[in-house]
Amino acid sequence: MIRRFSLFRSLGRYRRLAATCFLSCLCFIGLAVYGWGVSWREVGSYAFAALVLLLGTVAVAAFTGWLLYLLRKR
User: Fold this and answer.
1) Torsion-angle region of residue 39: left (phi > 0), alpha (psi -120 to 50) or beta?
2) pLDDT tens digits, residue range 11-41?
């Protein structure tokens, strides 16, 4: 039980790092829109394309894991 709490305590450091990375990414996107004249529609289309590619990669990985599970089961 004590180990579990120490694990959560160590994850707090990475949560702050993730929040910092997220904030810096938002600032960079804001700079692209404000400073370089990129439209919000274009930013949205890039974000949608990145999300589709990420979901596709996760789906291929899940399918590969399922196939490996079936092969090991035999």
Assistant:
1) beta
2) 566 778 888 888 999 999 999 999 999 999 9
What letter represents residue 38's amino acid? Answer: V
Q: Which two tokens stand for residue 31?
A: 């700079």
Amino acid letter at 30? Answer: G
- Angstrom distances, CA of residue 24 to CA of 7, 21, 27, 31: 26, 5, 5, 10
pTM: 0.64
- Euclidean distance between CA atoms 70 and 17, whole angstroms: 38
Check whether residue 31 and residue 62 sit in a common domain: no
Domain boundaries, position 14:
1-38
Among 52, 51, 32, which residue's Cα sits nearest to residue 43? 32
**Residues 46 and 63 reside in one and the same domain:** yes
Distance CA 16, CA 24 (A): 12
